[in-house]
């Protein structure tokens, strides 16, 4: 039986571990955390992410927890429309999912054939000519035919195999929260929740996860919002961070103030936004008769402006699982590299163009941006949406 060690039980590692186990691989999944659990936030999945999860055999589980996300348009802080909401064709409609629901679905997908070991911090990947690859936690080495590095932005495996790729700050911090359905503000029927507001270096996006138990909605329900602001994360306690957010976004269009008022400091998740620059030169490395691959943020951490990080991790997992069903290991690793690197590079390029638009500051630059945003943003978003809609898992 072929064996794999997957390092990292985030969304990418969970997805690929389950897929390999379902194809008959013996899988060991390692995570440094004592308990594997997701952040209490949500994630937007574009059609490519949804299609990848379907290819991984997780479509039914996803359908039960996903809420469609209609286009809410883009406004300026003074309420002026930069991009009007438009009806979204069904094949381009993203969905929003509570991360805890997604985690439950991915854990269910592991079945009982994946050996999950927590509290194991991998420190080193063994890549010796003629030998199978292995990972070492400072005490033991676990070797396998395939090592999947799904250990996130700070991946130790990528640092060892692709040291040319560094982690840098994207120049902004992000705050996210899910307001549970029972605490969510009751908004007037004509006031849509979904939508995006763009200011000078500031951005606010909201989406509804529906009410608990509503058909097709998250089993947890509520309202998800994410705010990004230029600069570093704040060192103050969550209560103060929330007060700062209320001040930064004061006077912005409804329902932003109502959402911030309904947010409890314990709902708040703050994060520095970071990315890989440059991308690793390779995503697959032949090692003896087997290989090592980079997957998810370990391969292509990027700012969340297009909401594509997790979607690409699912694409990686679906592609790898499909290639390993069809080809021998060293060939599958090479093909994975050939297919996934250009794909990730395209999405990263689109994300960087979006970052430049979002981070525009200064009065003149802002006026020029606002004048151009209607076309730039809708063109950029359409090309990103088109590339998301067009992706198909390998046959
Ligand atoms: C603000 C924000 C909003 C976002 N919104 C979206 C969105 O709407 N849509 C979308 O598609 N994406 C979004 N993303 C991106 C998405 O969250 C990530 O791309 C995705 O979670 C990456 O998953 P991963 O499994 O590759 O890595 P991670 O989730 O980082 O998991 C890595 C795992 O590896 C473990 N690990 C790390 N090092 C070691 C080690 N040495 N040994 C053992 N275990 C280790 C960690 O404990 C962790 O469990 C967003 C990101 C941010 C910051």
TrEMBL record:
Q: Enumerate the GO terms in the molecular function aspect.
A: FAD binding; monooxygenase activity
Q: Which InterPro entries match?
A: FAD-bd (IPR002938), FAD-dep_Monooxygenase_BioMet (IPR050493), FAD/NAD-bd_sf (IPR036188)
- Domain FAD-binding residue range list: 4-162, 290-351
Keyword list (alphabetical) reads:
Monooxygenase, Oxidoreductase
Please tell me whether the keyword Oxidoreductase is annotated for this protein.
yes
Q: What is this protein called?
A: FAD-binding monooxygenase
* A Pfam family annotated for this UniProt entry: FAD_binding_3
Q: SUPFAM superfamilies per the record?
A: FAD/NAD(P)-binding domain
Q: Which Gene3D superfamilies match?
A: FAD/NAD(P)-binding domain
Please give the organism.
Answer: Micromonospora lupini str. Lupac 08
**Does Iron-sulfur show up as a keyword for this record?**
no
């Amino acid at each position: 039986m072929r064996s794999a060690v997957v390092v990292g039980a985030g969304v990418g590692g969970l997805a690929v571990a389950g897929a390999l186990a379902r194809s008959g691989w013996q899988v060991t999944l390692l995570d440094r955390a004592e308990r594997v659990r997701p952040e209490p936030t949500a994630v937007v999945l574009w059609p490519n992410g949804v299609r990848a999860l379907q290819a991984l055999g997780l479509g039914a589980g996803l359908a039960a927890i996903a809420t469609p996300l209609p286009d809410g348009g883009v406004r300026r802080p003074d309420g002026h429309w930069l991009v009007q909401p438009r009806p979204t064709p069904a094949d381009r409609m993203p969905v929003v999912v509570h991360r805890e629901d997604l985690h439950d679905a991915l854990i269910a997908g592991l079945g009982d054939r994946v050996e999950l070991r927590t509290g194991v911090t991998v420190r080193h990947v063994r890549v010796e000519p003629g030998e199978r690859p292995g990972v070492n936690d400072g005490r033991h080495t676990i070797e396998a035919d395939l090592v999947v590095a799904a250990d996130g932005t700070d991946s130790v495996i990528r640092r060892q195999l692709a040291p040319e790729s560094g982690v840098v700050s994207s120049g902004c911090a992000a705050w996210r929260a899910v307001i549970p359905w029972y605490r969510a503000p009751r908004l007037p029927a004509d006031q849509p929740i979904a939508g995006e507001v763009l200011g000078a270096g500031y951005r606010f996006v909201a989406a509804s996860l529906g009410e608990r138990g509503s058909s097709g909605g998250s089993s947890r329900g509520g309202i998800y919002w994410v705010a990004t602001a230029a600069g570093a994360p704040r060192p103050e306690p969550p209560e103060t961070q929330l007060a700062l957010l209320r001040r930064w976004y004061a006077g912005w269009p409804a329902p932003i103030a109502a959402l911030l008022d309904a947010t409890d400091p314990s709902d708040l998740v703050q994060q520095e936004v970071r990315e890989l620059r440059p991308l690793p030169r390779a995503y697959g490395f032949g090692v003896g008769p087997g290989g090592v691959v980079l997957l998810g943020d370990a391969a292509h951490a990027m700012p969340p402006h297009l909401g594509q990080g997790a979607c690409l991790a699912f694409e990686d997992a679906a592609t790898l699982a499909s290639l390993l069903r069809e080809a021998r290991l060293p060939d599958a690793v090479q093909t994975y590299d050939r297919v996934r690197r250009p794909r990730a590079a395209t999405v990263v390029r689109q994300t960087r163009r979006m970052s430049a638009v979002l981070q525009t500051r200064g009065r003149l630059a802002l006026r020029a941006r606002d004048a151009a945003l209607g076309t730039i943003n809708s063109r950029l978003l359409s090309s990103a949406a088109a590339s998301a809609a067009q992706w198909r898992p390998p046959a």
